[in-house]
Amino acid sequence: MSEQEQARVLAMAGIHNFRDYGNYAARGGRLRKGVLWRSGQHSEATAEDLEKVHALQIATVIDLRGDSERAANRCLRHPEFEGSVLFHPGETASAAGRAVHEEMARDVRTADDARQAMLALYETLPFRPVLVGTYRLYMHALAERETPSLLHCLAGKDRTGLAAALVHDMLGVHHDDIVADYLLTNTAGNAEARIEAGARHVREGFGISMDDAAVRVLMGVEAQFLERAFAAIRERHGSVEAYAREVLGVTPQVLAAIEANLVE
């Protein structure tokens, strides 16, 4: 990981993949630094982690997990947190209580199985009704609020990764930077601890024999996964801009407000 990439990542003991996805060149300027945060869930956050998060003055938390995920893994907040936590009720994964990458693990045994499962998953992510509902809340929060926000799911890699990539694309971030930020999941923070934790969830949940290489594919990200989601969007709507307008409610007026809040 380069020094520039390292500067984006905040080291946490119990929160995986915590980083700033702002500060990229965008249409008309550069994304603000310190206002666009993303991470995995905070259910195992330490007191020190919560102090670090509190210092960022985050006023809006967008939780992309489903209802049963939230119930099973309650996110910890700083005692002085007074912000809003936004989510659309329901399940974002087809299997209650599971993250989206976990639902794909049922028939996976090899790395190739895992790769094909993740590609199939990413074709559906932009169109899952509950996930879309929370994406809509996020986009409108970005339009209405100038204060720092935090976007997260369970591992902070798939649902979160797509949401961050959509924001980047709508604001004119270069595609190479979009992919590079997405792939930072593989090296941000203690990636090995995240993979180990994910492996326990997957293997305990489905009780099947799975190659270590398959687990790594499920718990990581690859450029082709994100490209598959963008391809599915273009196939249905013609462009990300049209998808954002037709599915997420990002009208030209909403997009202009987001740009005014995030681009300097």
UniProtKB/TrEMBL annotation:
Gene Ontology terms, MF aspect: phosphoprotein phosphatase activity
Top-level taxon: Bacteria
Similarity annotation: Belongs to the protein-tyrosine phosphatase family.
PANTHER family in alphabetical order: TYROSINE SPECIFIC PROTEIN PHOSPHATASES DOMAIN-CONTAINING PROTEIN, TYROSINE-PROTEIN PHOSPHATASE
Protein name from the UniProt record: Protein tyrosine/serine phosphatase
